[in-house]
């Protein structure tokens, strides 16, 4: 698996594509694979604030529930309704149509603290 | 970790292997949901080799097994199978198992994989001198064929007449060219189906013989993940989740398996007292009314008072909603009774419903 360079990654296996107006957040291919087939997503409401490093959602497979940790802070502008309705979409395309949350970021400097693709791949090599 | 005789086949089929009850077994092949739906609509093959097989042979076999378990082995006909708990003197459950009655002097019990060592210790500690008791768990492969089309699949590999084998009955005969195999119409899914007990050396032969018809009918191999969702939709208890040494069969809703009027058995006195006292809690089925999946050990509340704990919970693939089992104070056990579950710090509404969750199973 080669991780795309258009985004940054957290140590807790989320990704974020930065855009000053609307950043997109999801979980990595690695996380989706580790969890197994997802059956339930719990995401914040549009208008909620999420804070970098804090829980902003839950992804659940048949056997396990895992927090989604916000990579950066901001106000939620959209959630992926299609994925909420059919969580397996996240497994099918975790880096694309299986995105989870869009936010209007308000602390862009937080992007500097995240891993680029090469660093994330190195992190996975250690797991 | 033990590898079953079918290990290479699971890998060939893309099984994601995990450790379960000391065995390496597939949790899923492609998708738990798809595997689940395949068993409900068509047919699936399971490797259940982790289950344990204990044989009791010789005079006194029936009397001994009947003393170990709460259901009545003396009331069975030869060729029948029953489901039963096996209890401690205090009424807590050692394990739940199937009893196969070949005759008064030949009985087989099939126990949970995770309980084999503990059960074997329990059984041998109580066995009378001179009774031959044999643990064949490590020599026996168990393949289950489950689903509405299971009979068609099994018919393709045996001349044993299947129609006369009723639900919870068995026969012995040639299956896939292998002589003297035990075949029962039993299962843990709520669908019609068979379980086949095979000496390990012949396991691959039997699986490979079952496979073409299974595939032709749109069936697939089924992992442990779907086994769990299938059983939960039927409210079949899982030892270690819904029942254990701290729960008795009466509160688990298994009173139908406790025959207090039969000859003395281990746990009888305690269960008579428990019945007279009426259980203070009951294992109930519930649906979530709000978002979230209630998981094992989640606490249940009514008016901010704790009334119980969840023992199993999942997203039901057949019903598309979150379901679960919980021990609730008996006053809250009636269908329609609403309560809250603490799901990761948030209270979510749930309602008690009548078992089973899934009502269209084809089990006969």
Structural class of chain B: alpha+beta
Number of discrete helical segments of chain B: 8
Q: Average pLDDT of chain B, to the nearest integer? A: 97
Name given to the CATH homologous superfamily of chain A: RNA polymerase II/Efflux pump adaptor protein, barrel-sandwich hybrid domain
Task: Please report the distance between the alpha carbons of the first and last residues of chain B.
Answer: 36 Å
Q: Strand-residue fraction of chain A?
A: 25-35%
CATH architecture descriptor text of chain A:
Beta Barrel
State the CATH class of the domain at 2-49 and 138-233 in chain B: Alpha Beta
Give the SSE order of chain B as H and E letters: EHEEHEEHEEEHEEHEEEHEHHEEEEEE
Protein name (chain A): Glycine cleavage system H protein
Family (chain A): Belongs to the GcvH family.
Cofactor (chain A): (R)-lipoate
Domain Lipoyl-binding (chain A): 22-104
Tell me about this structure.
The complex is a heterodimer of chains A (127) and B (364). Chain A is of the alpha+beta class. Chain A has helices at 29-35, 81-85, 88-92, 117-126; strands spanning 8-9, 14-17, 23-27, 38-42, 49-50, 55-61, 65-69, 74-79, 101-105. Chain A has a single domain (8-108), classed as RNA polymerase II/Efflux pump adaptor protein, barrel-sandwich hybrid domain (OB fold (Dihydrolipoamide Acetyltransferase, E2P)). In chain A, 21% of the residues lie in helices and 32% in strands. The model of chain B has no long low-confidence stretch (mean pLDDT 97). Chain B is globular and about 60 Å long. Chain B has a six-stranded mixed beta sheet with strand order 11-12-13-10-4-14. The two termini of chain B are 36 Å apart. With 364 residues, chain B is α+β, with helices and mostly antiparallel strands. Among the domains of chain B are: 2-49 and 138-233, 2-Layer Sandwich (Gyrase A, domain 2), CATH 3.30.1360; 280-364, Beta Barrel (Elongation Factor Tu (Ef-tu), domain 3), CATH 2.40.30. In chain B, strand 17 and strand 18 (322-329) form a beta hairpin. Chain B: Its EC number is 2.1.2.10.
């Amino acid at each position: 698996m080669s991780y795309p360079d258009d985004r940054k990654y957290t140590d807790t296996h989320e990704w974020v594509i930065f855009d000053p107006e609307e950043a997109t957040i999801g979980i990595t291919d690695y996380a989706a694979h580790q969890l197994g087939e997802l059956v339930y997503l719990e995401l914040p409401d549009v208008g909620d604030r999420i804070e970098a490093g804090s829980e902003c959602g839950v992804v659940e497979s048949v056997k396990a529930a895992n927090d989604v940790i916000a990579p950066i802070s901001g106000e939620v502008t959209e959630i992926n309704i299609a994925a909420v309705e059919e969580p397996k979409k996240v497994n099918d395309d975790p880096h694309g149509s299986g995105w989870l949350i869009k936010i209007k970021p308000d602390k862009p400097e937080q992007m500097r603290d995240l891993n680029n693709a090469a660093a994330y791949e190195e992190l996975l090599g250690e797991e | 970790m033990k590898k079953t005789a079918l290990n290479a086949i699971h890998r060939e089929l893309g099984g994601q292997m995990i450790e379960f009850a000391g065995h390496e077994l597939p949790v899923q092949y492609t998708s738990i949901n798809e595997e689940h739906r395949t068993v409900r609509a068509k047919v699936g093959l399971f490797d259940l080799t982790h289950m344990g097989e204990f044989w009791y042979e010789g005079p006194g076999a029936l009397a001994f097994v009947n003393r170990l378990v709460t259901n009545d082995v003396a009331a069975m006909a030869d060729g029948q199978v029953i489901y039963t708990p096996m209890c401690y003197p205090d009424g807590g459950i050692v394990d739940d198992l199937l009893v196969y009655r070949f005759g008064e002097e030949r009985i087989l019990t099939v126990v949970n994989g995770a309980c084999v060592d503990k059960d074997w210790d329990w059984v041998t500690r109580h066995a009378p001198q001179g009774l031959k008791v044999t643990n064949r768990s490590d020599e026996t492969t168990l393949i289950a064929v489950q689903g509405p089309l299971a009979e068609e699949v099994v018919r393709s590999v045996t001349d044993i007449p299947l129609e006369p084998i009723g639900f919870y009955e068995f026969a012995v005969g040639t299956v896939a060219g292998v002589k003297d195999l035990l075949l029962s119409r039993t299962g843990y899914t709520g669908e019609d189906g068979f379980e086949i007990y095979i000496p390990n050396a012949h396991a691959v032969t039997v699986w490979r013989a079952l496979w073409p018809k299974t595939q032709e009918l749109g069936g697939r191999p089924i992992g442990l993940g779907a086994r769990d969702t299938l059983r939960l939709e039927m409210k079949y208890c899982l030892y270690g989740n819904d029942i254990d040494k701290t729960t008795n069969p009466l509160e688990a809703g298994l009173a139908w398996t406790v025959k207090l009027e039969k000859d003395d058995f281990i746990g009888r006195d305690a269960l008579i007292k428990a019945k007279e006292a009426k259980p203070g809690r009951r294992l109930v089925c519930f649906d979530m009314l709000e978002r979230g999946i209630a998981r094992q050990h989640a606490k249940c509340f009514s008016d901010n008072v704790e009334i119980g704990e969840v023992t199993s919970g999942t997203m039901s693939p057949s019903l598309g909603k979150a379901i679960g089992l919980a021990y609730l104070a008996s006053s809250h056990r009636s269908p329609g009774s609403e309560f809250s579950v603490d799901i990761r710090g948030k209270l979510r509404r749930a309602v008690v419903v009548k078992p089973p969750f899934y009502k269209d199973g084809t089990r006969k």
